[in-house]
Amino acid sequence: MNEKLKNMDQEIKTIREAAEELKRLALEAGMPAVIKNADRILASLEMLALNVSDPVSLE
Amino acid sequence: MSYTQSRYWNPVLETMPRAQLERLKLLKFKRAVGHAYANSPFYRKKLDGAKIRPDDIKSLSDIEKIPRTDKNELRDAQQTDPFPYGSLLSVPTDDVTAYHQTSGTTGQAVRQADSWRDWEWWSECWATILWAQGFRPQDRVFIPFSYGVFIAFWAGHYACEKIGCEVIAGGGLSTEDRILKMREIKATALMCTPTYALHMTEVAARLGIDPASELHVSKMLCSGEPGALIPSTKGRIEGRWGAKVYDHAGATEGGAWGFECAEQPGGLHINEAMFFLEVLNIENGQPAAPGEKGELVITPLDRRAQPYLRFNLKDTAILTDDPCKCGRSFRLLQGGVLGRSDRLTKVRGVLFSPTSVEEIVRGFPELGDEYQVILQKRDELDEVTVKVEIKPDRRKNPELEERLRQALRLYTGIRINVEVEAYGTLPRFEVKASRFEDQR
Q1: Domain B345-438 fold
Q2: Which of B191, B245, B288, B326 shows its CA 20 to 30 Å from the CA of B61?
Q3: What is the model's pTM?
């Protein structure tokens, strides 16, 4: 399970970086539809972090 | 194995060894204090006043250095800017996506701000609860509440969606129409207050419908009042609905922190991965020993828009270290929430909790579901009167009154007057029942 959790944690970090970059580009382009949907992705990613990244950080 | 067969929403968190769980709680508590100090003017002032900095929290025992938060402080803080949340708001106002408020039963309502991120957190907490109670994507969940300004079952609705259940928002319907709709669409699960669960069966009976045999509900989450863990009340609801009834405890300020699992262990698990819940001695504020009744103080560990540190819930409970057959490492509150510490009162020198009356009244099959507890002063002496209703197919008689009087005296330790009223004469409640009146 530990290895699987670590892999999941890595994927979460990768997706977060991608979502943050997407939001940055959308802010530059002034596209509310992308900014607000990226915000929702980031909120979901925080829940994934609570479920996965926090326990991994205790290792 | 299909993921739907998993007993846990998150097996890693829910079965985490205790030592690791304590480390997780400390990590998150420090983070919560850091966020509140950096972003909440209310908490910065409060912590500065107590000469506490986030870095001072190095172990779980340091948590006691943080002063507790009372509801009155929240009311005062909300008189300040920015409107309407005041100095409790800890994110930019543009980030707030949901407004709710407390019921205001103990004074001015407290307004609660949540961001979308917090709303995800709410539904995450609720998903843990619902999954533990057997809610699965196959369920069709009926939610008969008003969908108004009170938080009530709002997050339960979103959690059902997160799990993948089909949700029916039964808010705009009368009780009769709700029952008919549940029958029509074959709802398999329900969430409501225990009072309303009983009320629905009364209305169903008037419609000539037997919920146990004619509806399809197999599980119910009951919340908002302690009833679902009061054995006689649970028994009444389960018997009439032919369904399993599970308790859940939460608060607008505290979040959805407690749940009864499918094993029905006679208590509530504390979701210790998401909340730091303390049970403190009512007299001296020190941690209560397992088995000792105390009052609950909560810190939601992951709440951000309007966070709370060591908030006094004013609920009373008994912590136990007994393990649960479900395998969760989350500790249990034996018997769930037992009452309100601000409603504990001394009657002729004996500590009396009005909630304790319910277990006895609902244990009498001759009596209806409603009751009232009234405290009065007569000739300088405290008097407690319990008003109950006789069922329509039963008759009032002195023998019943005497049995009830004796049972109440045995259970509470005080002499209680009993008045048996005609069926349907006491007030009915749909959301939070208010059955206690102190007229002293």
Answers
A1: GMP Synthetase; Chain A, domain 3 (3.30.300)
A2: B326
A3: 0.91
